[in-house]
Design goal:
The chain is of the alpha/beta class. It folds into 2 domains: 169 residues, Aspartate Aminotransferase, domain 1 (Alpha-Beta Complex), CATH 3.90.1150.10; 245 residues, Aspartate Aminotransferase, domain 2, CATH 3.40.640.10. Helices cover 40% and strands 14% of the residues.
Length: 433
């Protein structure tokens, strides 16, 4: 073509959580049954939306108003409801004009990073959730900047590493926090969050906090929202209903903006996000209408508590299985749907393999493990030998070797079979060298 039409950041767009599916689908076509442990979709794994929530949605579908456009920021009654919820927590106060709806947090993340000045960078955690790391890297055209999460300290942020990177790189304009964290399942305390916000305050950064799992905490953890710790620092909280109702197919998420009036540059930046949304007219209306009725229903808190107990039970089951396996390191998650399993240093090599009886599948896997990271090599062998699809930890913008599993399988027997099969495969793989 007469001009290069490819964006400078296009090579940074990577989403291992979905990319591994392509390999799994090819193996499925060869006759292999696949257990999909790669993505955080509760519905796909058998969870049912409560009947009372379905009844609310059915009633809304019967109302003509839910078929029309909403205001660009969102449905007015929903914006007022959410602003009230923020203000009831204490801390930073907001109005309905500080909340903006998007078609899922993927849409919000793309715009939050995409409408930054290209030279303005946002540092995020490693391991990183791929949607954030890819969007930030793509907007800048360079690899995502990260601070370390320490697996020996329950995957808590290394604050010395974070501050040093912020201090000596003046291109960093923002800090990303994921709380509860994906892929590690770590939940941050109020004390830790205050320390991270203080770094942002002292170096004049804004803070982005992904809170999509804010109400899915257990094992003694408590939810602490960004609004409770942000003080006078500019900030954005990312929220949604996909994991919480759960209704992932709704593609309904929103941002809560803090302190935009205090900082003219930050306010102009937020205005650019609203203007970008205005070009699309609005986000999908129906799920927005459901929020005050579902979240305001007296059955909603017990619904959240039931799910917290459910995931706590599953997490503890998984921890009891994997903590007994030599050669790996696990911590007990306190939130979200995930557990990261870390291979001990020096355990993996390029001679290890799992036995694959099907000749066609064996050759396919052997072709795909050439020149890949050691943890991805294991993931491919696990997929080919056992039909279990997990995500390598290096796919989360991480230099450590491991993989992520989910806590989502609703079939108790199948879930325990999956985890026990993975545990046995780790032993077999390590011993095969």
């Amino acid at each position: 073509m007469r001009r290069n039409i490819v964006h400078e950041g296009s090579s940074q767009l990577s989403y291992e959580i979905r990319e591994i599916v392509d390999v799994g689908v090819q193996l499925k076509d060869m006759g292999l049954d696949i257990v999909w442990e790669n993505i955080g979709d509760p519905i796909q794994k058998g969870e049912k939306l409560p009947d009372w929530i379905k009844e609310i949605i059915i009633d809304l579908v019967s109302q003509d108003s839910t078929y029309g456009y909403a205001a660009t920021r969102g449905v007015t009654e929903t914006l007022k409801f959410l602003a009230q919820k923020v203000n009831e927590r204490g801390g930073c106060q907001v109005t309905m004009n500080d909340i903006v709806f998007f078609n899922g947090l993927g849409d919000a993340v793309a715009k939050v990073f995409g409408f930054l000045k290209r030279e303005a960078r946002v540092i995020g955690p490693s391991p990183a959730y791929s949607t954030h790391s890819s969007a930030e890297a793509a907007h800048s055209g360079y690899e995502h900047l990260t601070y370390e999460l320490d697996p020996k300290k329950n995957w808590m942020p290394d604050l010395v590493d974070l501050e040093n990177k912020v201090k000596y790189n003046d291109s960093i304009a923002g800090m990303l926090i994921i709380n509860p964290d994906n892929p590690t399942g770590t939940v941050y305390s109020k004390e830790l969050l205050l320390k991270m916000v203080d770094i942002a305050r002292r170096y004049k950064l804004f803070v982005v906090c992904d809170e999509i799992y804010a109400h899915i905490v257990y094992n003694g953890a408590k939810s602490v929202h960004l609004s409770e710790v942000i003080g006078e620092v500019p900030g954005i909280a990312l929220r949604g209903i996909s994991k919480e109702y759960p209704w992932p197919g709704s593609r309904c998420g929103w941002i809560e903006v803090f302190n935009q009036q205090r900082y003219p540059d930050f306010q102009r930046y937020i205005k650019s996000l609203i203007n970008a949304k205005m070009l699309e007219v609005c986000s999908t209306s129906l799920p927005q209408y459901s929020i005050p009725r579902v979240m305001g229903d007296p059955r909603y808190i017990p619904h959240l508590q039931m799910r917290q107990k459910m995931f706590e039970k599953r997490v503890n089951e998984a921890y009891n299985i994997f903590s007994q396996v030599k050669g790996i390191y696990v911590t007990r998650p306190q939130g979200a749907f995930y557990m990261s399993i870390l291979f001990n240093e020096g355990v993996l090599n390029d001679r290890q393999r799992l036995a694959i009886e099907n000749e066609q599948i064996r050759k396919f896997i052997e072709e795909h493990v050439q020149d890949v990271k050691p943890d991805k090599r294991y993931v491919y062998y696990l997929l080919g030998a056992k039909g279990i699809c997990v995500v390598p930890l290096t796919g989360f913008c991480c230099s450590r070797y491991g993989f992520r599993i989910t806590m989502l399988e609703s079939d108790d027997e199948k879930r325990l079979w999956t985890w026990n099969t993975i545990a046995e495969s780790i032993k077999e793989y390590i011993a095969s060298a």
